[in-house]
Amino acid sequence: MSKYALAIHGGAGTILRSEMTAEKEKAHEQALLAALQAGEAILKEGGAALDAVEAAVRALEDCEYFNAGRGSVFTHEGRHEMDASIMCGKTLEAGAVAMVQGVKNPICLARRVLEASEHVLLCGAGARQFAREQGLEEAPPEYFYSEFRHRQLEEARARGKAQLDHSRKYGTVGAVACDRHGHTAAATSTGGLTNKKYGRVGDSPIIGAGTYANNRTCAVSCTGYGEYFLRGVVAYDLSCLMEYRGMGLEAAAYHAIHHRQLALGGDGGLIAVDNKGNIALPFNSAGMYRAWVKEGEKSSVGIYKD
Ligand code: ASP
Question: Rounded distance, CA 251 to CA 100, Å?
Fold first, then answer.
């Protein structure tokens, strides 16, 4: 039996202390800790890492602060097109959805793709149809609406750019876990970029780029400007640094973000856990919403660099 470990993120970006209020900080920390608890409750009972990461991400999707599920940003056309993926480090099975609309919890849909389909990635209307067939909960456009997000869209439209949910202080969400059996899993969910168009899809639903898990190495969930994470195949790169170069989790995670991503010009971070329950949370942006816990230790939560 190993000791369990769980880490979650709520997105990396330009999260500056000077632009936060104590109230906002506290609200985010509480939301992160609640999601961490949702995942930890499963691991504590001897449950599977795969169930724990799904539960943690689902809790973050239900919270309007984060750019996933309910809090997803708007596309250029004023819709919500969500991406999510989940991977089991024990079996290397994976499920993912892209550009899905009207599904309350895209991470649960990704899990259904993993469990109940012969595919890895479903997108758009087909993913929605699969959600219906699987009996997943749907939600109307009002559920995903917030004035704050709408204002962000108008600002981005005025600038004529698709933008990372940076100045939002809220972001893409993810979770990684190692359970008591030494099995790992990773999950990521996002609304993508504000004002995105042409069916843009980022790294979050792409296995190997935004999400990866392999018991032999680690489980990883990324956040940041997706185009760079796609080009860097970051989650798999980290796993490869461990597998082929023999690097430890901390060193490999640091290298993936601070050397390889920075060299490409990428901005963001990741969370990772190995099969011994070690955790790494590197980021090269101003901040990253994050929380983590190891069996027998107190939960921790962080927003800024220091
Ligand atoms: N990686 C996500 C994307 O590009 C965005 C984020 O992490 O905030 O879709």
Answer: 35
Q: Mean pLDDT throughout 254-275?
A: 92
Could you tell me the residue range of the domain that residue 262 belongs to?
A: 5-304
Reported pTM: 0.95
pLDDT at 98: 98
**Residue 16 Cα, ligand 1 centroid: separation in angstroms?**
18
Chain mean position to CA 102:
19
How far apart are the CA of 44 and the centre of ligand 1, in A?
Answer: 30
Protein residue with least CA distance to atom 4, ligand 1: 226
3-17: per-residue pLDDT in tens? 999 999 999 987 788
**Averaged pLDDT for residues 122-136:** 98
The answer to whether residue 172 is catalytic is yes
Number of domains, the chain: 1
Q: How many helices (H) and strands (E) does the chain have?
A: 10, 12
Residue 47, ligand 1, Cβ within 6 A: no
Output the domain CATH number for residue 69: 3.60.20.30
